[in-house]
Give the backbone structure.
Amino acid sequence: MKFIFKASVGLLALTFVTFLSDQRVQAQGAAGADTTATPQRPQQPRGGRRGGGFGGPIELGPDDVAVYDAPPEDFKTERERIPHGKLETVEYESKTVGTTRKMQVYTPPGYSSDTKYPVLYLLHGIGGDETEWQRFATPNVMFDNLIADGKAVPMIVVMPNGRAQKNDRSEGNVFESAPAFAVFERDLLDDVIPFMETKYSIDNNREKRAIAGLSMGGGQSFNFGLGNLDTFAWVGPFSAAPNTRKPEELIPDVAAAKAKLKLLWISCGNKDGLINISQRTHQFLKKNEIEHVWHVDGHGHDPAHWSSSLYWFAQSVFQDKPVVAKLSGDSLAGKWSATIDTQIGEQHYEYTIETKDSQTSGTAVMKLNGETFNSKLAKVKLEGKSVSFEETLNFQGNDLLITYSGELTADEMQLTRKVGEFATEKFAATRAK
């Protein structure tokens, strides 16, 4: 087993270094450097293939849409009149590495040894360390605010150093330390978790333990979370890096994953050249009908995406009913097709919906008995999962007002269509592949 583990460490490291060797300067700024600013990138079209900047070309599919809005502007702003938790740096003895190591630990407001708390292990990127999350996302402030608002449960958040080697500082050529990020699996399981459960009042039930992370830490979250489902029930990879194992390796037993996962919450930005890594896992999960969240926002490989992802993940983890996705209008963007059985025959529709400058509108092409009719869509709205819009169709010289209402999923709109006072039909419109 030791030989197999070391071999896999080397293979993962080689894969990661090879993939990113020509991205070193960008990656240190995007995937873990000490920065609070989002890299400025030119605006790019919503769909289709494009250059990805960091990483590789980007091919967006119909599922690659945002299922949550942007967080409120003040989600990381410290409030004076609410209870505050405590953030501290602690040291632990790592038998895996053979030295004393550091990590940051957040305990929630009112922390007491009389209560057993769930714990989230939050991992950084290849250029970061145990302080990276604090530098751009201030998780202590974010969690204080969410807990005060009743949106997150009181939990302990552990931010360890995922570079499991004696010199674990982010310095020099950070890519040379890629193998140490794979070694961290043993440090986490054998040293970090036992230390935390000895020093802090933690519920050691697997259903009270979560793992999440960004970039390299996102790949670790995939690998360590799905690879140790007896340890973790909640997994949140954000813009996972190429250290991520292939889906078939991550989930060799589909039935076990379905039975043991409480939540698998995956995110990436649509300007992130590493999106294909999470896309392939999403498609595998979808094919095998494994429930998960797939959230693609408008960011790149940057702190804005990671802090936003943590904001939404925190509102689902350790809760019986994870927060319902608040779909944005952009989630409707794309082409939809439908066949509607009407009193005058089958009408074959193609709807095209787009969002521009926060305004959502669209067009429709309808074919009936060999004729083609073009119309515009107006008042396109999406509230939660409820969708509605209007169509004005010129038919036989008359303008007919057609209203639509129903519910949206990633691939389908279940709609009720009312044609003035004449007819009402129910049908499904599906995303064009």
User: Anything to note?
Assistant: Confidence is low (pLDDT under 50) at residues 1-53. The CA atoms of residues 129 and 161 lie 5 Å apart. The chain has two domains: 2-313, 331-431.
